[in-house]
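Ex. 9. Protein: HTH lysR-type domain-containing protein.
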Amino acid sequence: MNTMQLNRFVEVAAQLSFSKAAEALHVSQPTVSHQIKALEDELGCALLVRSTRTVRLTDDGFAFLEYANDILDLAARAERRLKHKQRPNSQQLRIGAQHKRATYP
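Predicted structure tokens for HTH lysR-type domain-containing protein:
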């Protein structure tokens, strides 16, 4: 399982269409179908019910969709954090001042 497969599954679930998902992802429909089939084979269950006109999520598909979204969110957060870490660290500089009374002769 990889994030590419998860992205494609999430898009198919959102669109309820392999062709619309492929268009949104800028890939071919067979590519999306192949990736989803590979994901289902790896998981050992059907995530989607396909017919000639419709696509719908199975019960396992609904359950997995939540995990897929969580995984993709976590991966994006990790990537942002690590990319941010590569920038020079900004550090806080504190300056203190002491008040001295002026003495007059």
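Check your answer against this statement. The beta strands are 48-50, 55-57.
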